[in-house]
Amino acid sequence: MAKRTFDERIEELVKKQEQLKAQERQLKKRQNAEERKRRTKRLIELGAIVESVLGRPTTDDDKERLQAFLRKQEANGKFFTKAMNVQP
Asked: How much is the pLDDT for 16?
């Protein structure tokens, strides 16, 4: 059994390092996809809550009115933030 040269061992380590970096990229890609899915689900649920409170489907105009309403609540005393941060 012949011993491996330093160059062969270095080459093997470089190859392993590249494989580990590829695995890391794949894991980060999967993690980002999972985070996007959770965020999308959360946003859909919030939209469903808004529609259930309104009792009708939302329109594009509703988005602007809701945003303006929430900003006004915040400007008037952070009412929305206070309401959202209260623990039941």
From this structure: 98
